[in-house]
Amino acid sequence: MSWFDSHASGSLTSRLSDDMERVKDGLGDKMSFAIQAFAQFVGGFAVGFYKGWDLTLVMLTVLPFFSIAGALISKVVASASTREQEKYMKAGAIAEEVLSCIRTVAAFGGQKREIRRYDRELEESEKIGIKKAFVTGAGMGLVFLIMYGTYSLAFW
Fold it and tell me: Of 48, 55, 84, 117, whose CB has the highest number of CB atoms within 10 Å?
């Protein structure tokens, strides 16, 4: 019950639906892609070490760069996703509050004010989403730079 002391009444349903969507995404394609990537890494390492152990050890020098890039991207995107979810949760709470009391809002002519309040929360969420997309794109660019640099190192 302490949830309602610090959050609006409509934010719980908004939060639950968003969390369920995240669980579905995490257990769907992303989990299978992670298993596939891990299996490819282990298989590639085993075959590479068997065929040419010296080249495999040289190629392993870039593994920390991949790890650092992945960790940074994950941390920034997770932080931005949390803030974005909070803003959507607030916007959902506003919408639910207004719709449940629509007669009162209409009686006092508060439609425009409530629309502005809802839009403000969505605009902040949109800004966070744009930053998250930029970081994701830049991070993927960095990962591909490291990957193609690794290819050039191997061919050299």
Answer: 84
